[in-house]
Amino acid sequence: MAGTAELEEPQVHVVGANTIQSHMFVDELGNHHPVRLHTSLDDAVSIVCMRGGQKCLLLIDVAHVGVDRILESVCSVKLPRESLLALLNVPQELDSSSDCVIHGVRGLFFENDPINMIVKGVAEILAGEIWIPRRTLFEAATQPGRTACADLDANDSAGSGSEELTRREREILAMICVGASNQEISDKLFISTNTVKTHIYKVYKKIHVPNRMQAALWGAKHL
């Protein structure tokens, strides 16, 4: 049974150069999660797609694969819904940070982020949270005339549905829009994290979105 549990644990697919630094990073991250290093983005995407419904994180080093190439790949190949996307070694001054968010990136790890922060962020993303600066998330959510991949656009056409949300659900959705975690929402509203999760699940169903990122983008447009 222990072997089965290990197989079901979400795997992190790191896309980076075949260097000593990359292998050291993978070894450290491997102390916390199953990790595999890929030097080819196309190969990593193919493997993730073949694994289908198994939850995983695709962690791509932007110093190895350019941001434009990453976004092009994300939109040309529809990743399984259970596959999460994050970027590593992101320059602080990256102009396209908000575009990355719009295209479904769940985490941004910057060039000087320490390994312990990256390990924590990976765990948060796999737990369903967003690891993105609130300012970047807000810019993405309020960007006029934004365009995204087809699965994001499809949810915009589902109708606002905001009138179906309760006052508490709207309050929680507004906090999601600025990047608040479940624990932060819990602390702010004096309710348990389980209650927060229940409200979020109901919000997803009412506004017809599958995850936190799309809920944030939806909320910025309709609240």
Please give a handful of descriptors for the protein shown.
single chain; 223 residues; Arc Repressor Mutant, subunit A; 2 domains; 5-stranded parallel beta sheet; 5 strands
Report on the architecture of this protein.
- The chain is α/β, with parallel strands linked by helices and 223 residues long.
- It has 2 domains: 2-141, 3-Layer(aba) Sandwich (Rossmann fold), CATH 3.40.50; 149-222, Arc Repressor Mutant, subunit A, CATH 1.10.10.
- Helix content is 52%, strand content 12%.
- The chain has 12 helices and 5 strands.
- It has a 5-stranded parallel β-sheet, with helices on both faces.
- Helix 9 (167-177) crosses helix 11 (193-207) and helix 10 (182-189) crosses helix 11 (193-207).
- The radius of gyration is 17 Å and the shape is globular.
- Residues 1-6 and 150-159 have low confidence and may be disordered.
Distance between the termini: 46 Å
Biggest beta sheet summary: 5 strands, parallel
Question: Helical proportion?
Answer: 40-55%
Q: Calculate the mean pLDDT score and round it.
A: 84
Helix/strand/pairing category: alpha/beta
Shape: globular
Strand order of the largest sheet: 2-1-3-4-5
Low-confidence stretches: 1-6, 150-159
User: Percent of residues in beta strands?
Assistant: 5-15%
> What is the radius of gyration?
17 Å
Task: List the total number of helices.
Answer: 12
Number of DSSP strands? 5
- The name of the CATH architecture of the largest domain is 3-Layer(aba) Sandwich
| SSE sequence, one letter per element | HEHEHEHEHEHHHHHHH
Kindly report the CATH topology of the largest domain: Rossmann fold
